[in-house]
């Protein structure tokens, strides 16, 4: 942990430590009883087994074998040539990997091309909000999700957050792309690669003594429940914020946006019996799996500090600086999560953003004339734009690859 992060933790530690939320004492396994009904899923039925105890067996076995037999470099080399949705898995892959990928790249039978097209258009028209919400908001939420923060921190990618953010943004960008699920798009490709990366993490992370110490008794990371948690921190969270900000969203757009994420999480390996059928079902599931587990961890605090530092750095000079960045992050996730992440309070910018953001939204939606938008709003707007630009260009020139080791200690 570098000195700056340690200092931030110590500075914030007094207040939060008193609440019993600091560090190793974090209740990483605090969860509600799983009562969510498979009747509310896209499958409409299911055994109702708690997804806490379900992983992704077939790909988990496959990738464990790829790692154990020393095939990771060979597979990654082939994966680099796999770039389009309509492309069969490369012939040079080991047969078992190719067979899996050719199955895994099929869209579910319930995927609806028209809805995916509507979602793509929606992503285009609402790209500004969605990128801010998924990029900054989702990022800050993820570091308050203990299992995710710790899995990321102790896996290979945790040692190089610059690269990790770049790689993660590849899927984020792909989901928001106009051709996401079209033949020439790459959402299927990135989702299937991510599914294999997650399988690798399930095989590797249990051998990390540092992770095992803080896993709260979880023996294998990235359960189906964990993936759903992250899904809500992206899809359900973003949709909730759009409503809160009164961004006009038609019922067809809302439905299509849900569909896009339903298909994506299916492609990431989540069983249909756990994928919410409606936004109401999603909200109910989110309340059960996401809300109770949000808390502060040393790893999450350090990752937040790195992420915010990168964000401020990328978008300077002449743009966003760290206090504005902190305040924007606090605005997006709210005080409770921001305090968990130890994002410093920035009274001036927080007040400014709370005042100007609704005006910016109203202006963008044609509900407020330009002269009524306060000049400082454009500083905030520019900061968000610069961030989006950096977020969207980061992934270029990098590729999602299967790790063969944990974070070097
Ligand atoms: C890797 C997305 C859920 C932990 C990745 C990557 C993407 C991604 C795009 C590849 C980039 C990279 O290699 O760094 C997602 C999405 C999720 C999800 C969209 C859910 C909707 C989770 C959860 C956890 C997790 C729940 C842990 C609890 C990791 C780790 C890596 C990874 C540790 C890679 C580690 C390494 O670089 O060695 N994820 N993820 N992910 N994900 Fe996820």
From TrEMBL:
<feature type="domain" description="ER-bound oxygenase mpaB/mpaB'/Rubber oxygenase catalytic">
    <location>
        <begin position="135"/>
        <end position="349"/>
    </location>
</feature>
<dbReference type="InterPro" id="IPR006311">
    <property type="entry name" value="TAT_signal"/>
</dbReference>
<dbReference type="Pfam" id="PF09995">
    <property type="entry name" value="MPAB_Lcp_cat"/>
</dbReference>
<protein>
    <submittedName>
        <fullName>DUF2236 domain-containing protein</fullName>
    </submittedName>
</protein>
<dbReference type="InterPro" id="IPR018713">
    <property type="entry name" value="MPAB/Lcp_cat_dom"/>
</dbReference>
<dbReference type="InterPro" id="IPR037473">
    <property type="entry name" value="Lcp-like"/>
</dbReference>
